[in-house]
Amino acid sequence: MEPHENIDKMYFRFNDMEGLGQEYSLGEKNRKILNALPKEWEPKSSAIEESKNLNSMPIDSLINSLTSFELKLKYKLQDEEAKGKRSIAFKASSKRRKDSRKPHFNNFQITWDDCNSDGEVEEEYEEAQMAFMALGNNEVSSSCDSCDDSCDSDNDNDDVESFIFKMHECLKESYAKNKELKIKINTLLSANSKLVHENNSLTKKMTF
Hints:
- By secondary structure, this protein is mostly helical.
- It has a domain at 70-190.
- Helix content is 72%, strand content 0%.
- The protein has seven helices and no strands.
- It has helices at 7-18, 26-35, 42-51, 59-97, 122-135, 138-154, 160-206.
- Helix 1 (7-18) packs parallel to helix 7 and helix 6 runs antiparallel to helix 7 (160-206).
- It starts with 6 loop residues before the first helix and ends with a helix.
């Protein structure tokens, strides 16, 4: 697998090489694909080898599994970058309001974990954040901006506890919306993956 090459492109190139005349068994094809993966994919590759029979596992199933894992890695990286930006934004906001806070609230920091009041596991939270990154944060940002504007306008009259409660409710609402977007994203990704593999199969047939 070449640098900056995704799974679908690698598989398409693999089909081109196969068309040169060399015949491989199903097990050999699956192993060649796994061996071509980058070093950081070793845990995933080892898990597949241990849990699946590569001699009978359909190549499409292997590619689908690798594509799903690739997307999770991509969105996890984007999510980590977004968390860093959110942390900087919250710190800047906290500094602006520091003078108006009560002493025992000076070190208070709101995080996205506060939104997880229903006990959802961390994995589900991360997947919801992946969906958030996939669509972009336009909808969620507009919701939070609206809430933040309301909080700013009332901040002179409300005490600190009221302000924090409003921000907390805003973040919970955004988190719930992210969960809905995650479901839509997973459906679209699944359909896209199937279409890509169908296209690869048709392209391969047309070359013969």
